[in-house]
Amino acid sequence: MKMKTILAAGAMSVAAIAANNAHAGAVVDGIKAKGFVQCGVNTGLPGFSAANSEGKWEGLDVDVCRAVAAALLGDAEKVQYTPMTAAQRFTALQSGEIDILSRNTTWTLTRDAKLGLTFGGVNYYDGQGFLVPKALGVSHATELDGATVCVEPGTTTELNLADYFRAKGMSFEPVVIENINETTAAFFAGRCDVYTTDASGLASVRQTMAPNPDDYVILPEIISKEPLGPAVAQGDDQWADLVRWSLMAMIEAEELGVNSENVDDMKKSENPSIQRLLGVSPGMGEALGVDEEWAYRIVKQVGNYGESYKANVTAKLGLERGLNALWTDGGLQYALPVR
Length: 339
Prior knowledge:
alpha/beta, 14 strands, globular, 339 residues, single chain
């Protein structure tokens, strides 16, 4: 019911979004005027978006916002972060409260076509899993018949959960809690047998929030495809393009071997692809409505995709690249041509 309410509200808001963004570049103009990008992030998911001990936001999703700020405003630090729950995120984007949503959000047909969102690509390929206490004595998801399951509302997770149990002919009792911190607290307090979300989220929660991580296990079953990526409101193609190509620039840089440490030397490269990416050969910045060093600044200030993944996901959660390896290494990450 909660998801239906959100979808209905989203559908009614599409006309308002189009009206608010009646001309291309309206969001870009607004960001330039205020001097920062307003970025909607998770309330706290280490590895993706979470405030560190100094209160500074960091993570793979946060780096997308920083990349866009570097491209448009010249400074990756010109970002303000708005923590929000899964249920709050789409209304915040549609109302203009935030400029970009970079909060482990799955790209789906209804969100793309009915909620009035435009996705800027996939910055993490994921799938839904289950976290259980070892004491439960369960080794596979097919043994969860009758379990109580903690889940956040307004998510694909909630829908996938119902689909999975129905398909397996099993029953479950949902414990629906809006805030991720409250949901995980309820799970670790024993209010439910199982916590379900994206597998990366389970790894993050287990590693950073569990009283004793060794007391919990992620079951081997992955029950869905969860392509996660940044989204903006429909109606401003220039803004959507800038978000999309900022992410592509990070991936393209990794493909070309350009990173934050060698990017200055790489400006001297005779490789035409590197020259286009770094603005040595002009044209890409002009096409996006920014200066020619937009991608240079992204790599210099934020790093390429591999650097961001290593610093945030591998270092903090111990998750290897897997599906998020470059296509040349057997993964799915593939930059659209910057040309």
